[in-house]
Amino acid sequence: MAAAVVPALRCSLLQRWPHRCGPGVRAVPGAGAALRPCSSRVAQDGINQPVIDRIIRVDHAGEYGANRIYAGQMAVLGRSSVGPVIQQMWNQEKNHLKKFNELMVAYRVRPTVLLPFWNVAGFVLGAGSALLGKKGAMACTVAVEESISEHYNNQIRTLIEEDPEKYKELLQVIKQFRDEEQEHHDIGLEHDAEATPAYSVLKTAIQLGCKAAIFLSERI
Amino acid sequence: LLVSLAVVRCQQYPPLRTLQASAALRAASDEHKKEPWASSSQQHFESPPAEHQPEEKPQGPHPSYTGQGGQESEDYESEEQLQHRILTAALEFVPEHGWTAEAIAEGAKTLGLSVAAAGLFHSDGSELILHFVSDCNTKLTELLKKEQKLVQLGEAEKKPIDEFLRDAVEARLRMLIPYIEKWPQALSVLLLPRNIPSSLSLLTSMIDDIWHYAGDQSTDFNWYTRRAVLTAIYNTTELVMMQDSSPGFEDTWRFLENRVADAMAMSNTATQVQSTGEAVVQGLMGAAVTVSNAGTCRAVTAEFLLNVSICFPNPNLENNMEKLSSFVT
């Protein structure tokens, strides 16, 4: 019984926003046999639209936020010795964002409503951590990149569970980005991130914020 | 798994009415003629899209009979298709009977089914209206797709955005013309709390379709602004159309043209405001840099002069040093 309920729950969780479904009139629960007409937009080649929607939306939001974090860090530490390092990482994030912009248009995914908020919050986090010094900025980088790598890994798992063949291109992109984020994480460690005062507190707080951001961006 | 899914859903949602109604329906139809039940494929529309919708399979909570294996899935398919066919047939009678169970009953009669078929649906005609709206949206999408193909093949000019939006909204609203008398009733039904999720999702996906074919590629907050603006335009134009008695609804189309023009002007103003704001910020930054540079300039000159004056004996040295060092800080 439990085994049957779990997939049913998972199905309903994944398909909470029915307006991305295909054409057709389908029966839904309600008083009597109410039909629930759905959008006229066809699913592209039978991909699981709700899942892809979430993945691309949250990844786009993540790269957008990362961009803003690095922008904040550069605003404070741009002329210091770590400036070039941060600039290089920022450039890679800009590429990531560009790629997700393309994917978003291709899959017709809605961006998250919280983008203006992530715009400000990301910049404040970057600038704030940079004001704690170079090590502070690196600590922030380490924390964020670790969250993002874990998050990308989860997505890779999800997509592989669904259908590795169908989502080959997307999987490739996410794998490549995960590797680059991991590089950023390692660069952060190399630059004495762990020597920051209150490193573990800072790291935990930032990672908690990232988890909340991911949760919200997937849904809203 | 399908069976256990059905069992789970069965426990949540009362299927009684469907069972009884469809049983009565089948009994009645057996008397008249044998309907060839189409099987398996997920074809829902008369203008059938080529793609199938596999994601619909696990979702459709068919509140029903358990443990009937293949028989069950066939019945599930044909249940929906049957309802679809009845509703399509019922549309013909809407101008006369309104969006009501009578229209559905008449529609069922033309298919050779019993009038009890109307019992499959709500008495306020919700499903009929939602079916109609969904149908219109599909037709609009087909139309936009066709136009896009023509532009891609070079057989047509790409329209400027305001003209595109205007034409799309007009095309969609024209589909209401045969039912315009009874449309206010339909709108009020669509606003019932029970129907709001469906009607809202149909509306949003239609607006999204129009923007997509208009070439919108925004990935920031503009995505929302544009859709909100177009939704407002569509809704207000629809309401104007309800009370429009001019020949060929020309007042409505003029209203639509004006609203779209307003929206374009607003977006231009917004861009201008933004660039003005940016220019102002640039100016301020420039001024700040100039002032700080001037300050630096003075400091550098003062220090140089200070060093020079130390080298040469000077009775006014103390005074001069005081003055110069104030510039250095």
UniProtKB/TrEMBL annotation, chain B:
GO terms for biological process: ubiquinone biosynthetic process. It comes from the Eukaryota. It holds the Pfam family COQ9. Its main location: mitochondrion. Keywords: Lipid-binding, Mitochondrion, Transit peptide, Ubiquinone biosynthesis. GO terms for molecular function: lipid binding. GO terms for cellular component: mitochondrial inner membrane. Residues 27-81 are annotated as: Disordered. The keyword Iron does not apply. Pathway: Cofactor biosynthesis; ubiquinone biosynthesis. Belongs to the COQ9 family. Homodimer. Heterodimer; two heterodimers of COQ7:COQ9 come together on the same side of the lipid pseudo-bilayer and form a curved tetramer with a hydrophobic surface suitable for membrane interaction. These two tetramers assemble into a soluble octamer with a pseudo-bilayer of lipids captured within. Interacts with COQ7; this interaction allows ubiquinone (CoQ) isoprene intermediates presentation to COQ7 and facilitates the COQ7-mediated hydroxylase step. This is Ubiquinone biosynthesis protein.
